Amino acid sequence: MSVDDGEYVGIVLVSHSNAIAEGLRELLRQFAADDVPVVAAGGGPDGSLGTDGDRIATAIAEAGARGGAIVLMDMGSAVLSVKSALADADGISARMADAPLVEGAVAAAVAASGGGSLDDVVAAAEEARDVGKL
């Protein structure tokens, strides 16, 4: 896969809150190249707090269709839902990142925009886990 072919690594944002996932997607639009797919998959099936495995699977397929996808999630059942969706993601190269949702997503957006491979983008996101704030 080559960035010259428009095959940027996509980013999937999974949160128990649709508002958080959508807000973070809007933030990433400020950091990511226009061609980097950023897909929010927040909230439960009825719009309540929770996770929606079908929404997550669809987001992975959409974001990862060309260059693979990194999936960042907030906590608890989001991790389980993503693991389940990845197990069923036929033909899509996608990986979870062990990273904080916001900081990891921003680092992933920057790395993906630079044409980083899936491994590079996951590594950038996971490095954000160790960045102190003080």
Question: How is this structure best described in words?
Answer:
There is one protein chain. With 134 residues, the chain is of the alpha/beta class. The chain has one domain (3-130): Phosphotransferase system, mannose-type IIA component (Rossmann fold, 3-Layer(aba) Sandwich), CATH 3.40.50. The protein is built from 5 helices and 4 strands. Strands 2-1-3-4 form a 4-stranded parallel sheet, with helices on both faces. Strand 1, helix 1 and strand 2 form a beta-alpha-beta unit. Helix 2 packs across helix 3 (77-87). The relative contact order is 0.21. The mean pLDDT is 93.
Task: Please provide a brief summary of the model.
The chain is α/β, with parallel strands linked by helices. It has helices spanning 18-28, 53-63, 77-87, 101-113, 118-127; strands at 10-15, 38-42, 69-73, 94-96.
Please give the structural blueprint:
Elements: E1 10-15, H1 18-28, E2 38-42, H2 53-63, E3 69-73, H3 77-87, E4 94-96, H4 101-113, H5 118-127
Parallel strand pairs: 1-2, 1-3, 3-4
Which structural class fits the helix and strand makeup? Answer: alpha/beta
Order of helices and strands: EHEHEHEHH
> What kind of oligomer do you see?
single chain
Provide a count of the helices. 5
For the sheet with most strands, the description reads:
4 strands, parallel
Mean pLDDT: 93
Which strand order spans the largest sheet, edge to edge or round the barrel?
2-1-3-4
The CATH class:
Alpha Beta
Tally of strands: 4
The CATH superfamily turns out to be: Phosphotransferase system, mannose-type IIA component
What radius of gyration results from the CA coordinates? 13 Å
Which CATH-level-2 architecture? 3-Layer(aba) Sandwich
- Note the beta-strand portion: 5-15%
